[in-house]
Design a protein that fits this description.
The complex is a heterodimer of chains A (about 270) and B (about 240). Chain A has 12 helices and no strands. With about 270 residues, chain A is mainly α. The longest helix of chain B has about 35 residues. With about 240 residues, chain B is mainly alpha-helical. The model of chain B has no long low-confidence stretch (mean pLDDT about 90). Chain B has a single domain, classed as MetI-like (MetI-like fold), CATH 1.10.3720.10. Classes of the chains: A mainly alpha (about 270), B mainly alpha (about 240). Chains A and B meet through helix 2, helix 4, helix 5, helix 10 and helix 11 of A and helix 3, helix 4, helix 7, helix 8 and helix 9 of B.
Amino acid sequence: MSTLANEIVDRPPDLARPWTRTRIVGAVLVGFWALVILGLAWWLIAAWNPDLFDKYAPKYLSGLWVTIKLVTLSIVFGAALSVPVAAARMSKNPLFAWPAYAYVYFFRGTPLLAQTFLVYYGLGEFSAELDAVGLWSFFRDAWVCGLFAFTLNTAAYQAEILKGAIESVPRGQWEAASAVGLSRTQTMWKIILPQALIVALRPYGNEIILMIKGSAIVAIITVYDLMGETRRAYSRSFDFQTYIWAALIYLSIVEALRHIWDAFERRITRHLKR
Amino acid sequence: MQSAWSLLSFGPAGWGDEILAGVGVTLALALATLPVGLTIGFFVAMAKQAEEPSIRLAGNIYTTIFRGLPELLTLFIVFFGAQIGIQQLVGLFGVHRVIEVNAFVSGMIALGVVFSSYASEVFLSAFRAIPKGQYEGGYAIGLSYAKTMRFVVLPQLIRIALPGLANLWLILLKDTALVSAVGLSDILRQTGIAARVTKHAFLFFGVACLVYLVLAILSSIAIGRISDWAHKSQAAR
């Protein structure tokens, strides 16, 4: 009976949505983006060239693989290096704290491109010395130089993230742990780090995205990553769609990573939700 | 073998004056980009907190695109895209020739859109930190929307947004180095030329890094001053 009553009940009419000025502005803006995106899609379809695709698609894939390798390795090595740097940065001994501070300041205060040049071209000046210790064949490779510069750079940023996260855990946690008789190592691993890593999660995600975007500059020192392959394809074909395809690939990687990271963060902080 | 000091000296023998000119170009580019980026960023932030969902969507598309693309790629797309676009436009009028786009202007546009998409996030969170009561208070004493914005909201907004914007300024200063890749004679390009000519790459790129560091330190001092000025009007607690 009640279901019947529900069905014939008079619902209030939908609220009128008049075409106010803001609504018109919004429609124009969204229309603009829709035009841009549709125009781009139409142009990419119209300019579709199977020869170009056959020739450059495998190169783009290999470039993408170079980018992924470069970013993954530099993030991992940087994470390893950031631990001692962060520890030194938090040390009360100025002999540790000052060099670590200078390291972080230098790598965060100068452009990544300048650092990469310093490693790639600058170390060439010391080829004789590097050869003597057997490292020259190593640093002659542009890819290795890029990896080296990126590792040093991201280590500085990750050290700051780690330091900030560890310092965000209240002192009371340390005191409570020592009150129940945990050693400093145990406290660090079981009490402090699990809480700190939750704080560090978002900045770490941002750092990975920054590295993916920043890795494009290795193209300037002749590494054929995704950007490098794009530049080569453009300089050979003079077809602007090479750049548009690269933009779409970078954009989808970054967006995918952002969403994965968001889901990961929601999952890992589900005990904090109210 | 010349000494480092004679290489870096001013005058025809040294590279000091060339590098100084590069510093001027870097600073000019960063300072020219800043107002563009701040203005666009402010309006995008306004769009992202609008009540109308379609305006919000338009603002979010803007940030998603320009925060997701590598800065270098954005620069190349602007640089080569503008070149092709203008050539085709001119071609419509029957003029066929190769047109070079100004690297400074392309750099300004590319860095400006990247800066503004990050700045819009900073402004947005600053907007959200200002309680609704501030607007209501403004309307209650009879101020118009524009005047409430100008006299009530903006002074607080600047104070809240300043640390984030200062960070973005330092990032912008570093990102200008990318424009050397499309041929603008900034610090990095000038030191790069010096490195190639003199074969003292480590010295010159080291100098380039130090110059950027000095610029960052000077910026921090200036930002400290601005921050003091912005907090001057804050009520004492």
